[in-house]
Please model this.
Amino acid sequence: KRGNMIEIKKLDISKENLAMAKELTKEYSDSITLVNSDSVAYLNSYHGKQIDLLYLDSWDYPYGELLDIYGGKIDIDKAIDILKALDDDEIIERHGDIVAECQKHCLKELHAGLPHLSPNGIILIDDGDLPGGGKARLAKEWLIKHKYTCILDQYQSLWIKW
Model:
């Protein structure tokens, strides 16, 4: 916090995304710091104040690529239905090579951010309710194993440590 204000850091590897964020949040510019960096590298070298909300949302989940495998370019509704019919383990078995990188990166982000999380800090992970567990799958498995509590588990997944 800066005085009574909330301090927000927006990390993005894309300068274009940061430029858009700067434009969309210009009225809050005194509270937001935009940082052009890889999230894992930044968090591994972070020396700032403790983080109250760690929001993990880098790397896009390859949902479109999975849909294309099942005919998404021809019939998107059919492709969605096929993917919905497969359980997460089956998606990983069939397409682990496609989804693994974003899931591993999310777990790396979690590990890099946790040492900086405040005692009452919150972890929010995006893209968690997608085939194969979304990009949050490995991070959620780790959080469960390490006694974190899931408060919300939909498209976004919200975790705390009791």
